[in-house]
Amino acid sequence: MAFYFVRHGETVWNVQHRLQGVHDIPLDEKGIRQAEELHRQLIAEGVHFVRVYSSPLSRALRTAEIVSGQPASEIFCDDRLREMEFGSMEGDVYAEDAAGGRGCLPEAQTSGKTGAPQRQRETPPGSDQERSAASQDLPEIATAMEDFLGKPSRYQPPEGGETFQQVCARAHSFLADLAAREKDAAGDILIVSHGGIMHGLLFVLNHRTDIDAFWHTRTPNCQPIRFEQIVL
User: Fold this and answer.
1) What is the DSSP string of 168-187?
2) What pLDDT is attached to residue 139?
3) pLDDT, mean of residues 190-215
4) Of residues 10, 83, 85, 162, which has the active-site annotation?
5) In the predicted model, what is the mean pLDDT of residues 164-193?
6) Mean pLDDT, residues 144-167
7) Domain boundaries 3-16+27-84+162-227, CATH class
8) What is d(CA 54, CA 177) in angstroms, rounded to the nearest whole number?
9) Which pTM value belongs to this model?
């Protein structure tokens, strides 16, 4: 028995380097292929999933269906596996270098969120009022993004966002329940989630204590990370 932790397949917002959060962005064509390739890889390795857990967001649930070969009706959806909530930063662009390192968001890129349904707006989209409000928020959002990516211990989430501590707390809660429920499982377990919450899961599984090490493990789309057991 082993536990396989997988980040969902690629989406358009991944390609655009946008923070997705709880926006329900679907897999793109490459994301579907990634999940299909992982399905074939795991079959070739003799992996057999007796239980599958997933975030309820469609990009994760669809990945879980494809990778496991099981229908959505047989997959356990758990809200604790939803992506980290980024509040008003959702849809913002972050920089990523060729080595995969994430950098601070340039202020000029903090507006112009496109590509998915947005939360209900208090001002009409594209209005002078909205543009004025967005420009006033730029310095605050840019500072939050800088700390979010580079210094999590200093991060103060915008309204509607989660702290790293909150993400790690729900990751610990899920893992504690998972370990108790699957201690006698007769086969492998698949857990499909998102970049932010998956870092939280790995933070807990690796018994880290320095929250500034939150981003230290790479989690590419559809690349499994395997644990023989859950020890908290």
Assistant:
1) HHHHHHHHHHHHHHTTT-SS
2) 57
3) 97
4) 83
5) 97
6) 93
7) alpha beta
8) 14
9) 0.83
User: Which SS3 state, helix, strand or coil, does residue 80 take?
Assistant: helix
Q: What is the pLDDT of residues 33-62, one digit of tens each?
A: 999 999 999 999 999 999 999 999 999 999
- Are 224 and 5 within 8 A, CB to CB? yes
Give the C-alpha separation, 203 to 101, whole Å. Answer: 18
- The total of other beta-carbon atoms located within 10 Å of residue 197's CB is 24
8 is catalytic: yes
Q: Is 199 a catalytic residue?
A: no
- The domain segmentation of the chain, as residue ranges, is 3-16+27-84+162-227, 88-154
Element (H, E) at 191: strand 188-193
Q: Which of 8, 23, 39, 199 is catalytic?
A: 8
Give DSSP secondary structure letters for 89-121: GTT-B-EE-TTS-EEPPPGGGSS---SSPPPPP
Residue 131's CB is within 10 A of a number of other CB atoms, namely 12
